[in-house]
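Question:
When you can, review this sequence-structure pair and walk me through the C-alpha cells.
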Amino acid sequence: MFNDTSSPLALLRTRRSGKPRDMVAPGPSPEQLREMVATAARTPDHGKLAPWRFVIVPDEARPALALRLVEIQRAEKTDCTARDDEAAAQFVMQAPTLVVVLSAPVIPHKIALWEQELSAGAACMNLLHAAHAHGLVGSWLTGWAAYSEAVRDLFGKAPQRIAGFIFIGTPGRDLEERPRGQLSEIVHEWNPGYGPDR
C-alpha cells in the first residue's frame, strides 16, 4: 500500500515520490488541486510573508512550455543536442499535473532570506503530502531548468527562484521504497562535547 490513510502518522510514513514518467491519469481534479495548494500554503511562515507562489501549468499550455524550454536550453547550452531538446520537451509533458513552485522572498525584510527560502521548500513538501493524502503520487524535481533565470522568467521575476517542478498523478507502477538514513547516523543527542566532526 503506497498511501496508508489509517492514521495521519501512517500517511506520513508511507509517502514516497514517484517518477513523473511513470505517472498516469487521473491526476487531481481542479477542485482537488486547489485544495492541495491551499494545504501547501499552510506552511511555517515567519512574518506571515507567504514567500512562495504556485503556478499551475494547464494541459493545453504544456506544449508551448515545452517549446520555450527547448529554445532556452539551446540559447544557454552551446553543446545542446537533439537528444537534449527531446529531453527538455518531454520534461514538462510528464505526469497528468504540473505545478511550478516559486520561492518568492520579500526583500528587503527583517525576516532572513534563508528562512523565507526554507518556507518555500516546506510548501513544496506540503504539496507532496497533500497529493499523497488524496491517493495520488507526487515528485519534486529541479534540474537545469530550475536554475535558469530565463526559465524562471516564464513564471515569475527576480528575486523569485524556482523551488521545484511538482508533478502529480496516479502511480503507473508499484512505487519502490528507497534507502533511508539510519537513525543512528542522522540523529544525535547534543552534549557539551558535541562538535563539528559530526
Notes: Strands lie at 23-24, 52-57, 97-103, 137-141, 161-171. Residues 43 and 122 are 6 Å apart (CA to CA). The radius of gyration is 19 Å. The helical segments are 8-14, 30-40, 62-76, 82-93, 113-133, 149-152, 183-186.
